[in-house]
Amino acid sequence: MASTELFKFVLLLLVAILALELIARKLRLPSAAALLAGGVGIAFLPGIPAVSFDPELVLMVFLPPLLMDGAFYTVWSEFRKYLGGILWLAVGAVVFTTLAVGVTVHWVLPSLPWAACFALGAVVSPPDAVAAKAVLGKVRLPRRLMVLLEGESLLNDATGLVLFRFAVAAALTGAFSAQGALMSFAGLALGGIAVGLLVGAALIFALRHIDHVFLAITAACLSPWAAYIGGEAVHVSGVMSVVTCGIIFGWYQHDVFSANVRVRSLAFWQVLIFLLEALVFILIGFSLRGVIERLGGLGQTVATLGVPILAVVAAVVLSRFLWIYATDYLRVPLARIVGRRPLPPSAKASFLLSWAGMRGVVTLAIALSLPESMPGRDLTLAAAFAVILVTVLVQGGTMGPLIRWLGLDGGEHTESSHLNEAEASLLIDRAQLEVVKAYAYDTDGTLIHPRLLEQYTYRLSVSERYSAAPQAMEGGRRAHYDVVLAAVAAGRAELLRLHRSGRIHDELLHYIERDLDLQQIEAENDRQGPA
Predict the structure, then answer these.
(1) Average pLDDT in the 143-157 region?
(2) Angle at 155 (CA atoms; ends 152, 156), nearest 5 degrees
(3) Which of the chain's termini has less CB crowding within 10 Å, N or C?
């Protein structure tokens, strides 16, 4: 495909993304499911060219920023608190799924070497950060479950990639060392963390000394690729490097970003992540065409590999249920042995954790990177796509209704030791009023800022009343901000009237419009309250 044709094709894909996203919102479907199904449908339309892509390039282009986005918003205190549970899923569940799928495939196809069976298991074992974020971003869960699922999706790729590399090496050479695999995993993970710490520290240092908005945003947006490429260059885990860098960046961005940089950079970053996520699922859908063509058509694929593929999908889903239920109910007695008091096991929470094992871009990219001489390569490719299709469309598509059916959508979202919105706002308003009082009077005691003093005193009185009785003031609060938003809309209409009549210059238009935009954002956020 010529360069100009390729560019036109990408533009058409972006248009398709907009249409599919609108359809998903209209029908209240998960975006990931709609995009994946849309990609499959578009790929088989007459006249659509075959699309092939380098799996290593796909990983390098898409994975770092999408991992960074998840790590950036990670709450470090919660991540650290539930780290044991996260590792139990990110390492334990991945290893167990690899073994379960490997045994299942060898049982169905005894002629396939054990190493090739376990390589297939490693391909489909790690749930994907992109798929998880695309689905979990649309639902509300109790905080513990959300932290476990998001943390697992950030760390488990490293486990799956290490298992895959050793399984492929064993299949091609016939040699395998469990001790070597364990040492390699530890070295890759710790090395990735070290590189991520260095890149994160360098990024924070650079942002402290960059005072230009666009340069700061550019440096921040380059950081995920810097962390990933840096990790891979020294032969450690690029995934762990990006996750570590993202957690550091998310912690320190409040200090190094000005308000102007933060508003602009987050807006740009959200659009970038939306497009990358959407393109990933479109490309996954497109890959089905190549897989089926390589296997001789849909009928031949189903006739030859239908039973093994169904066995792989069943093993992937059931092994996660078995691991989570078994370990969740073993966790309590084991914790009591060491003198801890864990939360009691919850059948509903265990079911949801078991169901939320969506696969995505990493599974596809690993499968496509298999050597041509790898035994069972065609089965691995077809099984990888089938697992992605089932987990994203079926599991991801039913996640919202399942959460409501289990009654988990009204769970706790904040820890009891944390301040609520009213309490935090009260303390902030008190601190602001103290500063205003200090500057409101000149050296001889004359009041020189009466309006500011009146404004901040009133804000504190409102916060005190809201903190004392938030429910009683909720209706009044919404009505208050409805008026503010109406006033902003009236101001915007007058501003445009003045500009359209030629009475103000474009430069003044943009200046006042930015002020109105910030007023509207603040009023909309305050009206809604914390999510």
Answers:
(1) 82
(2) 75
(3) C
